[in-house]
Each structure stands twice: as structure tokens, then as C-alpha cells.
Amino acid sequence: MQSVLCYGAIPDGKTDCLVAIQNALKKEKEIYFPSGVYLITGEILIPSNRKIVLESDAEIYCADNCFNKSGVRAMITNDDYINGNENIYIEGGKFNGNNKNNRREDWAKGPNQGLMFSFYNVKNLTVKNANLYNPESYHIRLGKTTDFLIENINITTDFLTPCQDGVHVGGYSHRGVIKNITAVDGATNDDLIAFNADDANWYCQNWGMEDGSITDMVVDGVYAKNCWTGCRILSVKSLVKNILVKNMEVGVREMGINFDATRYCADKIFDEKDYPNGVGNLDNVVFENIKMWRTRELERTILLLESNGNYEIKNFKRKRELEPQTTSKTAKTAYLYGSKLTINKKEIALNGEETFYDGDSYDIKVEKI
Description:
By secondary structure, the protein is mostly beta strands. 3% of the residues lie in helices and 52% in strands. The protein has a 27-stranded mixed β-sheet that branches. A hairpin with a 2-residue loop joins strand 24 (337-343) and strand 25 (346-351).
């Protein structure tokens, strides 16, 4: 494993290390970042078959006013979106997007995407044991990515901006494990975990993505004291299948588990009149061992069940003792036509009506009849 210092990188937080890092990545299969701060002025592009290891106190830091340019996607990304990459491994270190000094001119239209990690059309990806700070939009974005592991990730955001998802998984992504994700200091300022099959190219942070199926995912261990939303499952028509999310313990400012298909977003990605029987194509989506609480006054429910398909929430606990005084209900169903709801062993036939439920302990199952 070759040190990036051998290629001229100077980790003093002042010297631009981008060229040195890129030269190391071109020539070495395995590279190493010793302690220090590595300033970069542009995207780090990773080829296939590369292993990158950082000391725990080695930090890659975005220079002021270098990542807010038109066309800039991310701090770290794979180098071939068209033909694809494989076998990329990143472990350790700190990654700082310095978003306060690298703003998007418009949070929805860019011109930059504001991403920290972006991997598109990648097979066999690992990102683990890393600390992520201050991206302008998503911390980790995956699209058309298969056979991946995202593990032991700590997220801290000092400067909150719109659409700061934690781990965002887009269309045509399959066979992934997301494990031990912790968000602190108000992070994340949008979905902590997102499986979004149908919002490609909607906002700048999703430019270049594709709508498509998401299958065979396991999420195990998600923690946050005060994030925006715990987990979003977004399907209008694309299949989201075999998703297991377990051991999630989060305080939320907005929503806990969200199946609303963007009905409460700044812009809804579909027209209700085009889907008279509701939206959603979900199969075997399971949440298990979930603890949630609301961190601010808000009337919206913690659980939004507004997408068609087969999904369930097992052993859900609402920790009201951690909440400010609130009158919000726990769960809401709506737009579910020809579906059956089983809530705490009681079966209810649904025909699109809006219904609210309140309680601190739930087992919920939605089935398409």
C-alpha cells in the first residue's frame, strides 16, 4: 500500500493535494493517507479495483469556492459513469464538504450537485469506518450500484441545508447492506436513509440518476437524536422489493417512516389524477425493532402509510417521554385502495380513506388485495 505522500501530497490543510491524489490513484491499486488535512480543489475520481485507506485523523477537505462550480458532482466519485466501475474500497478518515463555503446557488437547480460521495454504475463497493461532515446535499448517493456495503458511518453537519440525506439509494440498485449509521448535531437535514426508486433528475442532487427497481437491501443499526426523517421508501411505479430495516432508534423533526411518495415534499413528483388507484409498487418491505420520537411540535404523524404494496412495521415503539408536548398522532393511512391493513392484529379494509391512529406500540401490516 503506497502513501499519497510519495506522490507529493502535503497534508497541511493549505496545499492543494488533488493532483497528487489523482496520480496515486492512476498508478497504485492501494493507497494510504497518513494523518493530516488534505485540501482538494476538485472531484477525486476513483478507477476500478482500488483500495483507499485513511488514518482515523486523516481528513480530506474541500477548498473554499471550488465545489460550487457548474457541473461539479461530488467530493469523491467513481471515474466512469457510462461503462461502470467495480471493486472500490474506502475505509477510515474524515471527509469534510465545507458546504458553508461551497453553496449551491439554488438548492433545487444547482448548478453544482453538492454531493459528498457519489457512486453510479458501480459493482462491489465498500465505504466503512468513516466520519462525514458538511456536504451541501447528500452524504452518500448510490445509483445503479450493486453488491455494496456502507458500514460504521458517523454523520455530523454544522451547517444545515435542504436535501442533506444520509445514505440515499436510487434506481437499479441491488444487494446492499447499510450498517451502523449514526447522525449527530441535527444531522441529517433530510432523509437519514432513503430508498428512492422514482425521483431521478428531479432536483440537482439527483441529476444523472435513473428511475428503476431497488431490491435486496438490509439496513441494520441507525441512530439519530434529531434528524429530519428516519427513513423514506419512495415508489410511484418502480418496484422496491425485499427491503429489511431493523434496529432503528431516531428522534425526528419531520417524519419517522415515510411512504408518502413525495406528497409532502416541496414538489410532488406525480399528479394524483394520473394514479386514481394510488401509487407505489412495494413488495416485502419490512421495518423491525423501531424506536422513534418527535423532537419538535408538529401535527404530522410519525408513520405515513400512503403507498400501495406489501409492507409492514414490526415492534414499533414511540418514546413519548423524549418528546416536547405534542398532540400529533402516530400513524396515518391514505390513498390505499383495495388494500388490507392489519394493525395490532386487527384487520381493516381500506379504500383510500384518510385514517389516523394513535398509540405508543404498533405492529402494522399493509397488504395489496
